[in-house]
Every structure is written in structure tokens, then in C-alpha cells.
Specification:
Elements (H helix, E strand, L loop, with lengths): L3 E5 L4 H13 L5 E6 L7 H4 L2 E6 L5 H14 L3 E4 L17
Parallel strand pairs: 1-2, 1-4, 2-3
């Protein structure tokens, strides 16, 4: 049973779809925090749950720290990280670091 959900990367694509899915299909959900790099149009009245929308850009270190603090503070039951990113270009030509 998921009571508190965090969805990162909800401005478009998969993250946005998963946010809509969660609010429509997770009956046990009481609280949802949605993180996006763009302003969001989700409304608490539309969700039926306590809703917090945060505008954070995961490519910025300060926003990464803010998200980490939020995760430690709220101890979410469900975390969905759908933010895009990473090096652009052909996968086989990239050098990834830990």
C-alpha cells in the first residue's frame, strides 16, 4: 500500500503519465509530491490527495540536494524517477562515470 508518492520528471512524457496514473489508480495514496523542471498544472482538487508540486531541475546540483533532503524528510512509500538526462548522443560513444 502506497500512502506517500514522489514522482520526479513529471513535466512531460512518461513521468507526467505516471503522475496521472498514480492519482487515478492508487486508492491508498494520501499524499503526492510531484517534481518537474517546469511549472505544473496539477491541482489538489483534481487529485483527491494532498498534493505538493515542486519546480526543481535535476541537472542543477542545488536542486539535487533539495530533492535529497525532501526524500530523507518525507520517507516516501513510492518513488518514481522519470527525469530524462544524461549525456546526449549515441549510447555506445559515451563514457559514463559512477
Amino acid at each position: 500500500m502506497f500512502e506517500r508518492a514522489l514522482i520526479v520528471g513529471a513535466s512531460r512524457g512518461l513521468g507526467k503519465s505516471l503522475a496521472h496514473f498514480a492519482k487515478a489508480h492508487l486508492d491508498s495514496l494520501n499524499e503526492m509530491t510531484i517534481v518537474s523542471r517546469k511549472p505544473l498544472t496539477f491541482k489538489e482538487a483534481d487529485c483527491g490527495v494532498s498534493l505538493e508540486c515542486l519546480q526543481l531541475d535535476m541537472s542543477k546540483e542545488d536542486d539535487q540536494v533539495r530533492l535529497e533532503q525532501l526524500v530523507l524528510e518525507k520517507q516516501f512509500d513510492l518513488v518514481i524517477y522519470a527525469a530524462g538526462g544524461g549525456p546526449h548522443g549515441k549510447f555506445a560513444e559515451k563514457n559514463y562515470r559512477d
